[in-house]
Amino acid sequence: MLPDALPLAALTPPALLCLLAVSALVLSDLRDWRVGRYLCKPLAAAAFVWLALRLGAGDTPYGAWLLAGLLLCLLGDLLLMPEDERCFLAGLGAFLIGHLLYAVAFTRLPLNLSGLLASAVPALLLMALALRWMLPHVPAQMKLPVTLYTAVITAMLLSAGLTWGLPAAPWILAGAWGFALSDLAVARQQFVRPSALNRVWGTPLYFGAQMLLAASVGLA
After folding, report:
1. Mean pLDDT across the chain, nearest whole number?
2. Are 105 and 67 in contact (CB under 8 A)?
3. Is the pLDDT of residue 1 over 70?
């Protein structure tokens, strides 16, 4: 089905770059190799921007808004690389705007209110459980930014639900939820229990989700 839906010639080079870069990034994190991390993470992030561009992101309102979100996420990836609280806050801000841009992008497509209703319970449940799990570990000065960020993620998931029934919906929904769940690995690393294992599952999930969102441009 994939060749009929999306052009493999456009998908393959960015997908290969992402696969190689993410694999090397996970290995670098496991070995605590900072140079590898600084080299591979920008390459992995560039892959999802490259894919969106190859699929003509600038040709439609949906694609343009999504591309803007992808670029903000790329910036967020770069800002999260240093182990510095100010960089972390700046990265959090970049991702927050990226989530908002994704939400706007989803609303540029024909809307399905039944999809919104179907996604409301799981999205709000995820928000409630995530906050209950995270907030006891979050420093006082970070509680408001983290709560706001979680609320924006929830809004993005609700907006993704509005695309239900469209050809791009499976890619959008899988990408949006994968992105949201990968943020739990970042939260666990930052606030709860730092471990290279957080990145072993969080990193592939995050970049895979971004690639799915970028690929949705070709179906919207």
Report:
1. 93
2. no
3. no
